[in-house]
Amino acid sequence: MNYLRVARVALVAFASVGASLLPQQALADQPTCADAYTRAQSLRNDHKLLDSRAALRICVQPTCKDFLVKGCSTWLAQVETSIPSVVPVATDAKGNDLPSVRVSMDGQLLLERLDGRSVDVDPGTHTFTFEASDGTKAEKQVVVAEGEKNKRVTATLGAPVEARPVTPGGDTKSTSSGVPWRTIGLVTAGVGVAGLVVGSVFGIEAANGCSNSVCPSETAKDNAGANADRSTGFFVAGGVLAAAGVTMWLLAPRAESVQIGPSAMNGGGGVIVRGVW
């Protein structure tokens, strides 16, 4: 029984000594006020402002000496002003906000999701990675200046919206390179040939109205003159259209956008085709 009682006393004494040493060991692992004071200045000179702020918050504690607290308080206010902040923003191709996006900076997780709030970062060049829930990623390299607050860092996730071509002008129509230009050329040339035929008909009518420039009456003379004018107009318009149709058929346009519009001229009409051949 005496041995058992001695063992119990020894166990209690050992536990008491261990409990008294544990807080002292834990305090020994923490940086002292003087260490934080020195380390904060070194980190600040290296532009590691976030770590410098953390060290300064240690040496401003009431348990530190007064001159350390005074110096650290002044430096802490200066560092707080110099620390920049960013606001990561992610949108889809239509400009809609995407809150369920993870953001990493320089390979380290910065935000689990976007909520519009700013995040303090060290100044310098950083690479931000945005990752949506479906695995879509986007990277953006940004230079964050010292003292810059709430800098927006935006990224677009998803395929861009294909822009529709806009053609200036009134009735002008825009067509793509897939239009069958040979067919259009044949149709235009056919209209031109038809104009030449109609011009020939009016020319024959003008010739039959007056034989050898001798007209049987003033009315016949006026009709012959009108038919001659019509013949000339249709010949000119038909020739232009026929030439344009043959040109389109031989030289198929390779432009992505070609404009086609009507054109009026004295004695007839035509078609204007703009593009790159």
Note down, in words, how this protein is organized.
With 277 residues, the protein is an alpha+beta fold. It folds into three domains: 31-83, no CATH class; 85-156, Carboxypeptidase-like, regulatory domain (Immunoglobulin-like); 173-274. The protein is 47% helix and 21% strand. The protein contains six helices and ten strands, in the order H-H-H-H-E-E-E-E-E-E-E-E-H-H-E-E. The strands form three sheets. A four-stranded antiparallel beta sheet has the order 3-2-5-6, with no helix packed on it. Strand 5 (124-132) and strand 6 form a beta hairpin. Helix 5 (181-209) runs antiparallel to helix 6 (218-250). The longest helix has 33 residues, at 218-250. The termini are far apart. Residues 6-28 and 170-178 have low confidence and may be disordered.
Brief account:
With 277 residues, the protein is an alpha+beta fold. The protein has helices spanning 2-29, 33-45, 49-59, 66-82, 181-209, 218-250, and strands at residues 85-91, 101-105, 108-111, 119-120, 124-132, 137-144, 151-156, 173-175, 258-265, 268-274. The chain is built from six helices and ten strands.
Percent helix, as a range, is 40-55%
Structural class by SSE content: alpha+beta
Task: Count helical runs.
Answer: 6
Largest sheet: 4 strands, antiparallel
How far apart the termini lie comes to 114 Å
Report the mean per-residue pLDDT as an integer: 76
- Helix-strand sequence: HHHHEEEEEEEEHHEE
The fraction of residues assigned to DSSP E strands is 15-25%
**Coarse morphology:** rod-shaped
The protein's oligomeric status is: single chain
Q: How many domains is the backbone divided into?
A: 3
What's the gyration radius in Å? 45 Å
Query: How do the strands of the widest beta sheet line up side by side?
Result: 3-2-5-6
